[in-house]
Design a protein that fits this description.
Helix content: 55-70%
Number of strands: 2
Radius of gyration: 49 Å
Structural class: mainly alpha
Largest sheet: 2 strands, antiparallel
Shape: elongated
Strand content: under 5%
Strand order of the largest sheet: 1-2
Distance between the termini: 127 Å
């Protein structure tokens, strides 16, 4: 038998009574009632009284009236009560509070409030309940507000109050009350109130304008404060700006800028434009400073009137005059003048902002807002600046390189070691110091963008002039001019006067660095003043242009030319120069010296002016990669050219031996006389080596010199052995050979390279092979391995013995092998 399922109890229908709603929702609903109806809602029940008196109802109304509501709370007695009453009420009201918070939505009621039967309310930080504070405000404003039902200009507000700032503040509060719509007929009152406010604003603004025309500062301040209390007072600021004489001053007329320029072209034009704009900005700063004092007397500080005034100065006066200055710079068709003027103008604008924001009157100026206004007026010029700068810089680099090529082709001639154009060893450090000091004086001279600009408004000028233009004057009188143009267009490079090198130029590199420094200075000014996000990228582009010009297009080309010359070079005859020094080899080592100096100059410039603007930790950035490539150019050039230079030197020594070493030197006639002196060929080789070493020491670093001499020693040893093999040596001639080997050993010890000295000590021992008489003694010398220190194998020693004149007689005894019995 199946049982029927039990019937479900009927679902409880939701209550349709308002009392069943959550307390927070009821409080929100009560908040929408007109103020006049709130007392009726409070009389409905004890619960509705508590909800109607709660701050959840009155705090939104206070906010509508512009009153700040704090979150802190405390319990105080209601109006007419006492502390004791409040405490008793708190005890009796706990049960009601608990019940209210247990209802749905009760958790949203303030946890810091006590809802009491006596009417104790949430106390705000001001010390008054929200209902009482609203009551005070409403009681004060309601009579004035409701009077506008029937009156406007003759309302109670104007009859009871005569002070304009006070009237402005009350009208502002009445407007807030009107917009809160606390009354049923608020729409009718609103029209009358708004009409009155418009009339009051127009009347006060007219009084402000009349006071401005009379220069009545007190009246201007009163009317400006009235409008500030009413609606912020911007209308007064606009009147002050529109009537201000600074905008009608024709002392600096933009239409007359072009007429002030000199008739000639050159750096004077660029400085004339920059100096004129600097004077204009100085004049504007003086006028704005005077207006700051007046603004401080008229407007309240919160209005920030000075910032609005400065922005208007930028938008109207400065913008117009800057456009005229830059247009004049463009008409001269001189990119250098234009770039110089852009950077100067932007720099002057930033200086203007810095000075006016720190005015002596203490008037606040929002520097960020002024800077934004400045950025807007220079944006059309700053957006295209970096492309123009790079194009101009690349053209200037190209021009300098072409001048150098022209000079190089003109001066491509042989130089004699006796011409005095070689650096002596004692001169090299002095030369380095001179070059680096000159470079630092030129590159690190203080940069100023105009001839007369030091600090705006200071009235002082700096004692130097930075050559920012292509054909500008030198930086200071104690430094030789960078270049002097001859009548035929060639250029004299003074830092290169004592150099025999026609492949690379210190002066040219200094020119390029100077041009790069100027471009970098302008790029930093423009980027730092307009868009800091572009600063690092612009610095990288400018410096990379220098690295490529000096490295790829100058040093690398010079090394390639030096390699080509050394590849075609041959031994030098005595008729060319008495010391028979190979000039191509020496020129290569001077090239290494000069290129190293250039690299040091670039490093100093990079560390002082570039490194601070980039991220050195980003090893994949373009500037870090290009700098490593620049350093590799010198390393690759030295590595590829060193071998050829060494071989040229050794070939020259071999040439001397072949030409001057006589057959009778080591195999003299039987009746010949021996003078115990090195042979003429030996002395010539030593003279050539010493002359080349001495000249090289003036243009070569110590480490490079040591590597060079070490390799020369190894190859010269081989050439000397080869020279002995091709000659016949008698026992008498062995004495001459010993003199020569001793002389070679003296040279080897003089260069102070350990490996060379050790090698030529072996050469000195070879004389005994030709002096020994008996075959047994000779065999011992041949097999004395420690004597030759591994420099010669036994096979090579036997080959040398074949140069003995009596070798056929002793060959069997010398080459006989010992019989060993096992």
């Amino acid at each position: 038998m199946l049982r029927k399922p039990p019937k479900e109890p009927p679902k409880e229908q939701p209550s349709r009574h308002i009392s069943s709603l959550p307390p927070d929702l009821i409080a929100k609903i009560i908040g929408f009632l007109p103020v006049s109806e709130l007392s009726k809602a409070a009389r409905l029940s004890r619960r509705f009284k508590v909800l109607t008196y709660s701050d959840d109802v009155y705090e939104p109304k206070l906010r509508q009236l512009g009153v700040h509501v704090a979150a802190a709370a405390a319990v105080v007695p209601a109006e007419g009560g006492s502390a004791g009453t409040a405490a008793a009420g708190a005890d009796s009201g706990d049960e009601l509070v608990v019940r209210l918070r247990q209802l749905p939505g009760g958790q949203f009621l303030s946890t810091q409030a006590s809802y009491l039967e006596t009417g104790s309310l949430l106390v705000r930080s001001s010390g008054k309940p929200a209902r009482l504070e609203f009551k005070e405000i409403f009681t004060q404003l309601a009579p004035l507000y409701f009077d506008f039902r029937h009156r406007q200009k003759d309302s109670k507000l104007f009859r009871e109050h005569k002070d304009l700032p006070e009237i402005g503040a009350l009208l502002f509060r009445l407007r807030l009350l009107d917009r809160a719509r606390f009354s049923d007929d608020a729409e009718d009152i609103s029209f009358s109130l708004e009409t009155t406010i418009e009339w009051f604003e127009s009347m006060v603004l007219g009084q402000f304008e009349s006071a401005y025309d009379r220069s009545d500062v007190a009246e201007m301040r009163k009317t400006a404060t009235a409008l500030y209390n009413l609606n912020g007072g911007l209308a007064c600021v606009n009147v002050f700006i529109s009537k201000n004489p600074i905008f009608f001053d024709h002392t600096y007329n933009p239409s007359l800028v072009a007429s002030k320029l000199p008739a000639t072209v050159g750096p004077s034009v660029g400085y004339a434009l920059a100096d004129d704009f600097a004077k204009f900005m100085d004049y504007m700063l003086a006028n704005c400073t005077k207006q700051a004092e007046l603004i401080s007397q008229i407007f309240v500080p919160n209005l920030n009137a000075m910032t609005l005034f400065v922005n208007k100065v930028f938008e109207d006066s400065i913008s117009e005059y800057m456009s005229a200055i830059l247009a004049a710079a463009k008409t001269r068709e001189n990119v250098a003048t234009y770039l110089h003027t852009i950077a100067t103008s932007i720099y002057l604008c930033t200086q203007f902002i810095d000075f006016i924001s720190k005015n002596a009157q203490g008037v606040y100026v929002d520097a960020d807002a002024a800077r934004r206004a400045m950025i807007e007026i220079v944006r059309p010029y700053s957006d295209e600046y970096i492309e123009l700068e790079m194009d101009f810089l690349n053209k200037r680099i190209k021009t300098e390189l072409e001048k150098w090529d022209k000079r190089k082709s003109k001066d491509a001639k042989a130089v004699s070691p006796s011409s005095g154009q070689f650096f002596r060893a004692e001169q090299v450090q002095a030369h380095k110091r001179f070059v680096m000091n000159t470079m630092k004086a030129v590159i690190f001279a203080p940069v100023t963008l105009t001839k007369t600009l030091a600090q705006i408004g200071s009235g002082k000028s700096k004692p130097h002039r930075q050559a920012l233009l292509n054909d500008a004057e030198p930086i200071s009188a104690d430094i030789s001019p960078a270049s002097d143009a001859d009548h035929d267009g060639t250029v004299t490079y003074h830092l290169d006067d004592n150099s025999l090198n026609s492949l690379v130029s210190l002066e040219l590199s200094l020119h390029l660095m100077h041009a790069n420094k100027e471009a970098l200075g302008r790029a930093l000014v423009v980027a730092a003043s307009t868009d800091m996000s572009k600063l690092r990228a612009n610095v990288q582009r400018v410096f990379i242009a220098l690295l490529k010009a000096v490295g790829e297009r100058h040093i690398k080309v010079a090394f390639a030319k030096a390699m080509e010359r050394m590849s075609k070079s041959g031994p030098v005859d005595e008729s060319v120069n008495d010391k028979m020094v190979n000039m191509d080899s020496l020129q290569f080592f001077e090239l290494v010296h000069v290129a190293d100096l250039i690299q040091q100059m670039v490093d100093v410039y990079y560390n002082e002016d570039v490194k601070i603007w980039i991220d050195e930790q980003d090893f994949l950035s373009d500037i870090i990669v290009e700098k490593k490539n620049f350093e590799r150019v010198l390393d690759d050039g030295v590595a590829s050219g060193m071998d050829k230079a060494i071989q040229l030197q050794v070939n020259q020594c071999e040439y001397i031996l072949l030409k001057q070493q006589k057959a009778t030197d080591y195999n003299p006639p039987e009746n010949g006389l021996f003078d115990w002196k090195p042979s003429e060929a030996c002395e010539s080789v030593i003279t050539c080596l010493n002359a080349h070493t001495k000249l090289m020491s003036g243009v070569t670093e110590k480490n490079t010199m040591e590597v060079f001499l070490s390799e020369v020693g190894v190859r010269l040893f081989a050439v000397t052995i080869k020279n002995i093999r091709r000659l016949q040596v008698s026992q008498t001639g062995a004495m001459q050979l010993i003199c020569d080997t001793n002389r070679y050993y003296e040279w080897a010890t003089s260069v102070r390279v350990t490996s060379v000295s050790r090698l030529f000590s072996v050469l000195k021992e070879l004389g005994n092979l030709f002096l020994a008489d008996g075959s047994e003694e000779l065999r011992k010398l041949v097999h004395d391995a420690p004597r030759y220190q591994g420099a010669l194998r036994i096979e090579e020693i036997y080959e040398l013995l074949q140069s003995r004149t009596d070798y056929r007689k002793i060959q069997k005894q010398v080459e006989a092998k010992d019989c060993l019995v096992m």
